[in-house]
Structures are given as structure tokens and as C-alpha cells.
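Homework-ish question, so no full write-ups if that breaks the rules, but can someone show me the predicted structure for this set?
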Amino acid sequence: MTSTWESLWLGFSVALEPAVLWYAFVGCAVGTLVGVLPGIGPLSGISILLPITFGLDATKAVILLAGIYYGSQYGGSTTSILMRIPGEASSVMTCIDGYALAQRGRAGAALCIAAVGSFVAGTFGVLMLTFLAPLLAQFALRFGPPEYTGLLVLGLILLAYMSSTPLPRTLLMAALGLWLGSIGIDVMSGHFRYGFGIAELGDGLGIVPVGVGVFGLGEILATPSDSAARKVSAPKLRELLPSRAEWREAALPIARGSLLGFVVGLIPGSAHIISSFLSYAVERRLARRPEAFGQGAIAGVAGPESANNAASTGAFVPMLSLGIPTGPITAVLLAALAVHGISPGPQLITEYPRVFWGFVASMYVGNLMLLLLNLPLVSLFVLILRVPYAYLYPLIIVFSIVGVYEVNHSTVDLWILLVMGALGYGLRKLAFDPAPLVLGLVISPTLELSLRQSLILSNGDGRIFVERPIAALLFSGCGLLLLMSVGRLLGQNDWRGKLARLEGGES
Amino acid sequence: MDRVAGIVFISFGAAVYVLSGDLPFGTFSAPGAGMLPKLALLGMLLFGLVLSLGRGTSRAATRWDDLPHALRVGLLTGFAVACYTWLGFVISMSALVFALLVAVERRAIGRAALFSVGVVLAVDALFTLLLASPPEPGILGF
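A: Not a homework solution, just the prediction itself:
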């Protein structure tokens, strides 16, 4: 425990350096903006700004990019409450009661409770990350190729199980992602797979053009500007303070949302989205007046907003300690570390303590910054929201193009961006969730390497995956989840179906 | 919609599988370069089949009324990408923003021209001065 405190001290000495503070601030501010603006999510925001971090050292780069991620969770509530448009998918639940509160003239109180809940949950999440990640990393030193294979397969199946789209659709997207991830030169044999005579494809498809294309450009193609008309009014500063009764009503949902969100955040999948839905369901179940939900219940804002922030922090635990992305956003963050020559995994904490502990400490600071940033600047965000979408999306396309090009200075990447934009549009039309595709793309090389190493080690004997205790446990988990998924395949209407309908715009 | 999606992915998976003919699958004791991609393609075929044979339980019917907008934006972006290294960032991106505002969004030409040049120069300055990473110069040197 002493060493954790000493390490945290080292982290704060890094995080409080003026330059690092500046990048944490920029990340939080950009993240809030990304969260506020519908049509640009944290994944496209991080991907677009990834090239900007190439000139920075790894610590500043990851602090900036992570700030965008958790900052976007804060910002997403603003449009949900003021306009009933979720800036982020994870803010869908906040729309219901947040907007109802705004209609009753309590928009300021809802914004304040969302911001305070996000701060409490974010800080709780970082505290848990501080103590849990080193323990998990220590444990992960026992992992060999079969264990990594099991962990990655479990991650994909968990993502499919937790997803709001049907299992075959999610697994289909994961399979497509795994195939896309296999494009390029095979590191073990030197085969050039699916090169189609394009030398630039030798290194494979980059996460940036694919992520920005599928999530950013795809969203723009599917959003005509006349469907994005906005009417928004800003609450006055004096209206931001909730009443004592509202604080009392929010306290327990914030605590429950923080805990629930963090636990869900550890699980691969769109944790920040799922956690807010689960928190809303829990709060409605526990409420004395469940009929108030949908009419402007404070708990309906406090719980989900806390949960999605805690989940975004929880997602950093497997990312930092195991080197395993739990979703496309953490996958891009892993790619950012890789660009700086850092391989995330169990050794990250011991080999790069400044990066790890500086990052953890910066999140304490970042959460405080976000609390101070979000409430006083709400009028500024409202002003930005008034910029017509017709002027906004061309600017997003420009940033996407320059962002993707600057990674490798390759026009092939720009064509990949365009093709992936078209794919993203098509997937939206056919009601596919592209997140498993991006996750499959990212884990494909690691999964392939560990699978082939395991088979070579065992001379082709598949028992290597069940004879080693940790691998056996992981594959048992895969089997169990697949069995549980059969119920979904048979058409049971559970919470995922409700989430899918809500994401689809029904409420 | 499930059936359409299933058939699309079955066709795509089958076509790519045929293209993968020369990639060696290898054996379990010596897996080849084709093992993972072929397993992924088989997964795609399998789940595509499950989807197309299912009960069609996915969301409401798709509306394609935004397709003309998507095509216009996609084509203009494609054209800008094709000219990007030749014309450079400033010219190609200003032209793209201007074309999107005028041809797709039907905005006034004067305001669109001012906006497109203004924001592109601001982005150029951001990358050049603040981030020390100047965007692609074109034939005119900027």
C-alpha cells in the first residue's frame, strides 16, 4: 500500500507540471465540446486529434486523449438536458428526465447535479483504478499465449452478450473486424494478405482511418442538416443551484451509479452506454415514486450520469493493466501509446511509472477541472450549439481528413477513410453497431499471434486451452456466456432490447 | 432487413473467401497466414446465415431518404481527397467546404466563400503554428 501512495505522489508530481496540466485542460475542454456536439463522438474526437499528439511525449499524449474521453461523458449531458438530443450515446437516458426537468424550469439544477454526479463518480473511478490496476497487472504476469487467447475471445463474446444489438449481428461485426485486422503482412510468415497491389496496406488498416470513417464520416453521411435543426436556451447562472431536497434526492443515486458504473466499465463492450441504462433501471426500481420517472425525476439524471462517468474510468483498468481494450475508444488510446513506443500491459506500471501514475493522477485533476469547466461555461456551450449543423459538419470533415492524413502522410489512408465512411453509413442503415468491428480490428493481430503461438507451443493440441487453470476459467466463461446468449437468440425481450429501442430514438 | 443484411454479408464473405485461395490455412501444429482470416470469414458466413434465416427481429424498417445527401457529401469529399496532395490542404479543403455549403446546403455564395476560406486558414494556422505540423502543401506551395 505504501508503494501505491509513493507512486501516486510521483504521479501528482508529473500531473501538476504546468505543461501536463495544460494538456489535461485542453483534453477536458475538447472532450466537453465533443460531448456537447451531436454527431461527433469521443472515438472520432480522439482519432481526429491523435496526430496532434505525435509531437508530445507519451504521458502528455495519453493524458490529452483520455481527457477527451472522460470529458465527453461530462459534456454529453448538456444537450440531453437542454435539447433532448444526446450528445453521446451514453447520455440517452439523461434525455428522458433531464429534458423533463428543463421543461419545468429546472434545467440549471439538472445540469449541476449531472456535473457533480459525474465528478463524484469520476473521482471514485480513479480511486478504484489507483488500487485495482496494479493488483491486476501483477496477476496478469502469469498470462501466456493461451490465457491471452482466452481473454481476447472472452472480450469479444462479452461485447456481443452485453451489446444492445442481437448476438449474430454483433458477432458478424466482430468477424468482419477480425478479417479487416488480418489485412497486411503476416508477421510470422511474411505473407502479404489482401494487399490488392497496394504497398501501403502492408502495415494493415490503421485504427484512425477506420474509426474516423465508420464513426465520424458515417454519422455525417447519415445526418442531413435539415434533420439536425436546434432550438436551445441557456439557463441563467443563478438557476444552477439545486434545492436541498434535490440534493437529497440525488445523493444515493450518485453513489449507486458510481459503483455500478465502475463495475460495468471493467467489462468489455459499450460499458458507458450500458451502465447508464442499468443505472436508470435500478433507480426506477428503487424509487419510492417510480411514476415520477419520465416526468423529471432527479434520480433519473443523477444515476445514469454518474454511472457513465464511472464506467469510462473503469474501462481504463483492463486497458492499462492487461493491455486489453474494452472498446473502440480504449483501443485508440492503446494505439496512441503504441505510436510512442509503449506497449501497454502488465509491465506498463513497472517500466513506465511516470506514464501510468502521471495518467492516473491527471484524472483526479481532470475531474476537478471538468466540474469547474462545465457549470460556468454552460452558456458558451449553448452558443456553440446554436451554430447551424450545415456549417459544422464541413468543418468536422476537414478535421477528419487532415487528422487521418497527418498520421502516415498517406492518401491511401484518406481513401480508407472514405470507404469506411460509406461502410459506416451502410451499417447504420442496416442497424448494425460498428463498435465490435473496430474492437475486432484492434485485437485481431494480438489474437492471431497468441492463438498461433498457443497451437505451436502445444504442437496443435487444443487441450492447452483447458489444461492451464486461468485459460480454462476464461474459456469456461466464454462457454457460459454463449449458453446464456441462446436465450436472447430465442427472442427473449430483456433490457438490451429496451436499450436498443431507446438508442433508436423511442422513449 | 435482417435477411438483406445477412445476404449482403454472406455474398461478401464468400467472395473474399474465394479470393483467399492462395493463403495457406496450415495445420493446427503449424498454423498458416490464412488461418485467422479464413476463420473470420467462416464466422461471417455463419452469422450472416443465422441472420438471414432468423425471424427478422431487428429495428424498424430502414429509410433511405438521406441517401442523396450522403451521396453528394461522399462524392464531394472523394473529389477533395483525390486533389488533396496535388492542390494542397488550403485550396482543396476550402473548395470542399465551399462546395458543401453551396451545392449541398444551398447557402449564400458570399457567406459560404468567406466561411470556407476563414475556417480552413484557421485550421492551417492551428496545425502550422501551434502544433508545428503543417498540413500538406500543394502545387502552389501552400
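Now go work out the reasoning yourself. Hint: Chain B touches chain A through 68 residues (CB under 8 Å).
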